[in-house]
Amino acid sequence: MAPNTFGDFIQTPGTDAFDAVHTYTVVRQTLTMYQRALATGGTPAPLPWQWNTGGNADPLHVFPHGLPDTMNAFYRRSDKALRFGDFIPSGATARIFTCRSFDIVAHETGHAILDGLKPNWILFGAPPQTGGLHEAFGDITAIFLALSQLDQVEAVIAQTKADLHAKTFLADLAEEFGLALGRPTGLRNADNDFKLSEVGTEVHAISQVFTGAIYDILADIFAFERRPQLRDDAAVLHEVAGYVCGLLLRAIMAAPASNATFADIANQMLRISATDGKPAEYRNFIRNRFTVREVVVSPTPLTEDVAAEAELAPAVQDAPGAVQNRSGCCGTMTSPEFTGAVEAIDAEIKELEKHFRGEHGKG
Question: Does the pLDDT at position 123 exceed 80?
């Protein structure tokens, strides 16, 4: 594929060339968004992929049509790649290409970025909430990426009249894919009311608790910062989203390397927002939303300000030894390399090798 005279890659929608350009662009924009969120002195921070250690500089490979006749998409560490499926829904004639979904591409790229930051979080042996963080990060990535583009922010403001809890495409994730499954509000909806006591160990469901809390915090801070008589609403939402995006990413980086919980992230967000010198209202929004979702327990009434040094105890926690249920997750989280299947096969092979070595020794 070659650029045009002006150096641009302008392609016709619905073609293979368009799919390649669109998918690469969303992946690149996602990585750039998070690099800028961690920028110091205007210089974007490097965000290596999981395998970029010991001098390895291999890139992430992207395959827009990498899973023919497959209703899924995934990041796979062993392939150093993102692969996107295409399928024809039951009763339909038109093929759906997951690579054409802004939300799905951003979601899977989010998995790859988080795996580079916290490689133990994606493993099946981690507690259910840790798996929930991975799925939630993918969905939240799609939301923040949309809000990093001012034209999309303006569309959200126009659609919602500056109320993020009004019906909006921003909260409805992967609408076309969701409709193929009979879900009119998208594959998942970020503007939800789920609590931890309601979701069990199914990682897809758990993730919606965290995603919903972050979406509520975003909406709360935006409503607090609005000055419609003085500043354009779109400019304010664009700025607020950029801050919350960076706040969440920094909280994740400061969280434990293994077995992280929702409460770990909530407490890091409280600490960092205080260090940033943000108003007490920011901490109140964080504390209140995570309390209502049963993530943390507030020692004081929700009407009182949160102390800058507050460390909130977890509320609903994973039961000891709880096992993740990934049956409703995306292709990334159900990949054999992340579900323990590969390790189980390796263990069986080693046992067989021991057996045959023993038999050979007897001969």
Answer: yes
